[in-house]
User: Fold this.
Amino acid sequence: MTNPRLKKGLVQVYTGDGKGKTSAAFGLALRAIGRGLKVYIIQFIKGGFDYGELYIVEKLPNLTLKAFGQGKFVTQIPPGEKDMKIAKEAFELAKKIVKSGKYDIVILDEINVAMSLRLVKTEEVINLIKEKPEHVELVLTGRYAPKEIIDISDLVTEMKEIKHPYKKNILARAGIDY
Amino acid sequence: MTNPRLKKGLVQVYTGDGKGKTSAAFGLALRAIGRGLKVYIIQFIKGGFDYGELYIVEKLPNLTLKAFGQGKFVTQIPPGEKDMKIAKEAFELAKKIVKSGKYDIVILDEINVAMSLRLVKTEEVINLIKEKPEHVELVLTGRYAPKEIIDISDLVTEMKEIKHPYKKNILARAGIDY
Assistant:
C-alpha cells in the first residue's frame, strides 16, 4: 500500500474567490499520508489564528505544519516591517523544506495571497518551482495567484464562488469556516 | 475548544470539472473533527476503488466513512440494476444518517454525479435537504450538480479546471489522485 516516493512531482495551484482552497490542500495531504507519503504544510499569513484543523493535524503521522503570521490580516501594501520579516522567515523555511527533498508534498498555504500582498516576491517562488527536486509535489493555495505562477504550474484549479451565505449575513462558524 | 453542535447547518455544494471537490470535503471534515464535531461521509459510486484517504480516515476520531459502488465507473444511463440497487442502499443510509441528527456534518460524496447518472433522483435529494434537522450541515460533492440543487443550497463552489496535467499524458498517481 505504501508508495514511498512520487516519480514526478508536479506544481498544483488552488486559487479563486470560492471556498475550499485550503481544505482541498488538507484533503490532499490526508490522501497522501494514507499512502505513506510525507507532507509538510507551511501557512503564510494564517499563523496565530485559531483553525479547527490544527487540533487534529498534530495527531496525524507524516504531516508537519508550521504557521506564520501575527494572528491578524495583512491589509497594508506594502506590508509593515514585522509582517515582511515573518513572511521572509516562512519563505526561507519553504525553500529549505522543498530543496531538502525529504518531503513528498510541500503545501504553501496562502502563498498566492502573500505574493499579491508583496510579502513574498513572485520571482522567488518561480525560482523555487524551477529548482525543486523532481519528486517533490508543490501545492500553492490562495486567491490571486499571479499569472506568471499559473503559466509555469501543471495543475491549476480555480475555486469559483457561485453562492455564499455570508451574503445572507451568516457569520463564520467554528468547525466549518475556521 | 469543542463546539458540540452547529447552530445552523447549511447546504454546501462542491461541483465543476476541476480537481479538489472530494479533497475539499475531506479537508472540511478534518477541520470539523478538530473542533469535536461528528462527521459522516457517504461515498456514492466510489466504493471498491482504492483511495489513499481510506487508510487514514479509519484512524480518525468522530469520522465515519461508508463507500458504495462496484469498484468500476458507471457509464450507462440508465445504469444497470445492480448499480441502481447499491445507490438506493447508499441513499437510504444518507437519509437515515441525516435525519438522525447525530452527526453535525454529513458529506454525500459524488452524489451530484449519482444524480446526473439517474442513480439517485434529484427530487429525493431536494426532499432530504428540506427535511434535514436544522443543525446538520450537508455537503454535496461531484460534477454536474443539478440546477435545482444549486438553487436551494446555501454555499456553492465551482472547481474550475484551468490547467490539467492529464492533458500532458501524465497518469493518475497514488497518494495524489487516488
Q: What stands out?
A: Residues 63 and 136 of chain B are 15 Å apart (CA to CA). The longest strand of chain B covers residues 155-163.
